[in-house]
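Batch manifest, entry 17 of 40.
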Amino acid sequence: MVKLAVENVNYRYKNGERDVLQGVNCEFESGKLTAIVGPSGSGKTTLLSIIAGLDTPSSGNVLIDGEPLAKLNLDQYRRERVSMIFQAFHLFPLLTAIENVCYPMEMVGISQAEAKVKAKKLLESVQISVDKHGRYPANLSGGEQQRVAIARALSTGSQVLLADEPTGNLDVANGNIVMDILHKLANEKGYCVVVVTHNLEIAETADRIFKISDGISREELRCDE
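Output type: structure tokens
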């Protein structure tokens, strides 16, 4: 069971005149897909970057299982405990699908043979057929590239998946496939999944919703809770 907590987080850009985030408080846990919504410029992606340890809050804390990120080795944290999924996929263009998924494993010393076996299973789990494992990203559809990106995120063994507009570059059908995979990872596999989205239809399918407006967050209670 993983628990992430954002406690009274404020964030201001250098030379900024106001806080992008103001006293943000929210929690995320294993087994649930949580959506973060809000208008453009509200601070959604900034909050995700802070949770990922890519940005440091001006004040406040982010904790994982009670440990403040400020006291952790953030490179190790990002390598082992959280994984990012991006709107633009960010696959290595000169690596095949299976090589993209193998890469994080090989970086931590897993043998090429072992990594390839695990990568094959991960690709198949996100509906990438074997005949496409050897294709380069340019030869895959947008939906396929995003699913390869999910498989790569899973390859690190981290239990926290942070997805920044994961359907933003996809059509409705492929977006639904990606969200279905993320829901299953949360609800059936026990991952802690956090999705930043401007798509209210996608947000409505989440287990929990946090809305950010003017840098301030609040949880939107669901009618079935």
